[in-house]
Amino acid sequence: MSRAVKGTIVVEGQELTVSNPDKLLWPEMGITKAVFLQRLAGLAPWLLKHCQDRLLTTIRFPDGVNGKSFYQKNSPTPAPDFVETERREGIDYVKLTSLPVLLWLGNLACLEYHASFDRVSDPLRPTEWVLDLDPSLEEEPRIMEAALLAGDLLRSLGIASTPKTSGATGVQIIVPLVKDLTFDELRRIGEFVGSYLSDKHPRLFTVERLKKHRGDLIYVDYLQHYQGKTIIAPYSPRARAAASVSTPLHWDEVRRGAAIADYHLLNIEERLHREGDLLDRIPAQSLRPILTFIGKR
């Protein structure tokens, strides 16, 4: 049995323990824990921004992506003094507020970061609407075609949106909102959009909830966007062989058939410095006119 290796680093005045820095977390990409922590630090300004004011769930892979994993909602213990928590329904969620907190979680092999749709400060009024395109197949060559069709439909309704890879197999379409609709009202819009897509393109889309009944169709999941549910955070790594990262895209990239695995831990930081955060490019908008339109049908 190999002897565990530990060291310490100081980040923003906080001392952190780093254990087993040479452990391979993504063997196929040659990414060790030390490399992961470096890349996580590079992603921190964007990842922290999208996880702030959210309830955080992580997925831990103590032996890397090819090993066993488990969901972590409660704060790991013991936790350093600089880690703050938010208590909800008996769960003490970690507040992802700083680089030291992020690296502490990274050292614990928290590889994926899932953020709640609802905000801690105002859980009843969402600040974005998300349409989740979820393939039934593990490899879905039509996912960008599906995203483009969904985006075109939203555009025809006067809704501006940004596509984001899940980093796994799907694409999520994100619409920034002014806080004037509830989750239930947004579900009505999602049901309208999902039903239209599945009626218009029955060989591509479905709104069937049970996976066993979907065949090879792409599920338009409008139900996931709800208080208490989560989404993979923008710029979170995924526990996939390619070390892919959930990445916002230009619509032109979707049109050209971008591959989800093209955006990964080893190149995402350079993209962010070049492109910036694409989720910042669309101002908050109101979907109340769409809700009114649906109500008149």
Automatic annotation (TrEMBL):
This is Non-homologous end-joining DNA ligase. It comes from the Bacteria. The gene is ligD. GO terms for molecular function: DNA ligase (ATP) activity. It comes from Paenibacillus artemisiicola. Keywords: Ligase. The keyword Phosphoprotein does not apply. It is an enzyme of class 6 (ligase). Residues 32-278 form the DNA ligase D polymerase domain. InterPro entries: LigD_pol_dom, NHEJ_LigD.
